[in-house]
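Recall the central idea of this unit: under ordinary conditions, the amino acid sequence of a chain determines the structure it adopts. In this exercise we apply that idea directly, starting from the sequence alone.
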Amino acid sequence: MNRMKTFLLTTRLALLGIAASATSLLIAWSGLTFPWYVEVVGHFQYGYAAAAAGALLVAAAMRASKDMRVLVAFGLPVLALQFMSFEGLPHATASGDRMLTVVSFNAHYANEDAARLAGYVAAENPDLVGVTELGAPMAKALEGKLASLPHRVLLPGAGKGLGLFSRYPIELLHQRSSADAPGAWPAIIVRVSAPHGPVTVALMHPPPPLRKLAPEHVAQLADFGRRLAAIPGAVIALGDLNATPWSASYRRFRREARLEAAYPSALGPASWPSVWPVALLPIDHVLARGFDVVSSARGPDLGSDHYPVRARLTRR
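Accordingly, the structure predicted from this sequence is:
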């Protein structure tokens, strides 16, 4: 009886996940805007896929062929559409001084372990590092630890702090912080004088798309989409977008700004939460225009509730 209860539970959870996945597809295809509690179901596609795979294994172990056929018949087309409908940047081989290595990391505002981040930067040797939730103690400690990235724009402060570190000289094009407007979520846009030509770089951290913050989340991504769409040439956007590739606001942002994700499938590695046994949500991103991707990877635990993500890009 216990085995049968387990079987029924896993199958029902899997079918519920498949239904949620199908619903999020319809939301994305409709182009309409729905309340946050409807759209939020679209963020958990990795979890839905894992539940379906687990239920399929349980059904196979119990030789429940009918249930296996149902799971495959409903789950395979829905999840295939979710995971195959994204295209990332074209792949390329490393090309000397035309390559840029970019790291995006949500440090968590209470994390003061700058040594671990500095060690990761030393190992990966990036040209650009964007840090969200940059607290004042972390910002102060990093000033002396990231000598290879001397050009910086720092807006430290609790959960809304930002820091952009560059190997190459930068020109500030736009910045917003709580000093400009109470409660404002920060943003940084710079022009980087890279060896292969100037690159516009945007570091973003819109609020999570939940409850009263949901309209601000949508508005900020839309604002950045318009700003980056108006900028010609090569562009890199990075940060904790509080959005997975399946969310409607993320899709609109990518489409308007003409950006592609710097990952093999455009889905990216799950970067949050690092405090769980398995991270479920890819919400930390590197996106670009005018580049091909050489490689990408999720970094190690650096004392935050997020993992860093790294992308090596080469200029077209």
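The chain has a mean pLDDT of 86.
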